[in-house]
Design goal:
0% strand; mainly alpha; 11 helices
Length: 172
Amino acid sequence: MEFLASIKENIPDYAKDIRLNLDAVISRSSLSAEDAVGSALAAAYAAKSKFLIDAFKSGLSDVDANAALTAAALMGMNNVWYPYPEMTDDAQLKTLPPQLRMNAYASHGGVEKKRFELFALVASIIGKCHFCVKSHYATLKQEGLSSEQLRDAGRIAAVVNAAALVLAAEGK
């Protein structure tokens, strides 16, 4: 995972823990390498870090990168919509369908359902939508992911989000 070295060399010493955690959460994840890097890409997209998006995309096939980006893009919409009716506390609004296009769910972004859900979970963790996190987490448990793997998905989200903040502060 050569791309990790290029990320780490851009993270300053004040964020040494973040730099060290990148290896731990991605290279030594209980997730497969492709799932860990795809999750990192979805997290980078959700964290709005072009630098990280470009780096993580280089470690994936075009199909995997597209699926991670598709999941994260949909979560960018869903992580805002689904909490909205709850925030309004409007009983009628809560019963109305969102009427938002989400056709990519049917094809899972071109990868198996479990992987697409994993990418959506990681983006939703950063998006802080508890409805989406709970839904994707439950689906992934049903799909056979262990608590350790789901913990690692959360760790990837946390570290990539922190790396994005550091890189943004450094103008990258």
